[in-house]
Specification:
- The chain has helices at about 5-20, 55-65, 90-105, 120-130, 145-155, 180-185, 200-205, 210-215, 245-255, 275-285; strands spanning about 40-45, 65-70, 75, 85, 105-110, 135-140, 160-165, 195-200, 220-225, 260-265.
- It has about 290 residues and is α/β, with parallel strands linked by helices.
- It is built from 10 helices and 10 strands.
- Helix 4 (about 120-130) links the parallel strand 5 and strand 6 (about 135-140).
- Helix content is about 40%, strand content about 15%.
Length: about 290
């Protein structure tokens, strides 16, 4: 072998190893068939928490969504209300859930917000469920388990998205409301660790959602995209583009970052009849132009 070819061969080996060490973007992409205007947009099933998971799938499809994020504890269906959707679900429940998704051409992409323990055996149950469902990431606020989460993320090639609820004035130990805290938490960690950016809860905390996304550039695994009627803790969801969260600006920033994750609409208003509002949100993304 010539010296030149030897150097080329060495470079071909070193570059992938360098990327591996850096944890560069290895998460599986979401197929184009599940995207609308370049975004994988659908619902967080919690939007339909007064209904079953089967009904959440149906309502997501009715609104025009193509992906869904499940949360732990939702009943499977009206016909089998004692069966729950969570990481303790039996293979039979998982098979029924996957069949229902396939029937409506909806892809399960995330699971959460779910607590994940430090112990590997407990954490593994969450990741096995996500893997079995073909999901891209889990959504959690279990920052104390970050070492275990990082190990599982690498092993399963599944993202870990740290979610934010609003700032808690009487609980200074609750820090995930702050995108700067999340950015610092995942700094120098595997690239599969990042944020589930909840724009509505940022607004409730007095933060600018676009600035939050900018703070987390390169670490936004998924989003709970919300628009609110006003800032503050007593605000409620409104259709995209009609509130204070600058949804167009958020979409501009996500597109500029090359965001490849999912946008979950977690609509926490008009609980019994939110499909029309959710449809307007999805239509906003469909019609969005930079």
């Amino acid at each position: 072998m010539s010296r030149t070819w030897g150097m080329i061969g060495l470079a071909a080996l070193v570059l992938p190893l360098a990327a591996l060490a850096a944890g560069e973007d290895k998460l599986p992409g979401i197929p184009a068939e599940y995207k609308t205007n370049g975004f994988a947009i659908g619902c967080q099933a919690y939007t339909f928490n007064r209904f079953s998971a089967f009904e959440a799938i149906e309502k997501t499809a009715q609104a025009g969504g193509k992906v869904i994020e499940f949360y732990p504890g939702q009943k499977l269906s009206k016909d089998e209300p004692t069966l729950m959707v969570d990481h303790n679900a039996s293979p039979e429940v998982i098979a029924k859930l996957k069949d229902k998704l396939a029937k409506h051409n909806i892809k399960a992409v995330n699971y959460g917000v779910v607590g994940v323990p430090k112990d590997e055996a407990g954490a593994r149950k969450v990741f096995e469920f996500a893997k079995g469902m073909g999901m891209r990431a889990i959504t959690t606020e279990s920052t104390e388990a970050i070492d275990t989460l990082e190990k599982m993320a690498r092993e399963y090639n599944i993202g870990v998205a740290f979610h934010n609820h609003p700032r808690q004035a009487n609980n200074p130990n609750y820090k995930v409301w702050d995108p700067k805290y999340i950015a610092g938490l995942v700094k120098d960690r595997d690239a599969r660790l990042g944020a589930c950016a909840d724009t509505g809860h940022w607004a409730r905390s007095g933060l600018d959602p676009v600035e939050g996304l900018q703070t987390l550039k390169g670490r936004v695994i998924s989003t709970h995209l919300k628009d609110l009627n006003k800032k503050g803790g007593d605000a409620h969801d409104v259709p995209f583009g009609t509130g204070v969260c600058n949804i167009k600006g958020c979409l501009d920033e996500l597109r500029a970052q090359g965001f490849q994750g999912n946008i979950s609409i977690e609509y926490e208003h008009n609980w019994d009849n939110s499909v029309p509002d959710v449809t307007r949100c999805i239509d906003f993304v469909r019609e969005y132009r930079r």
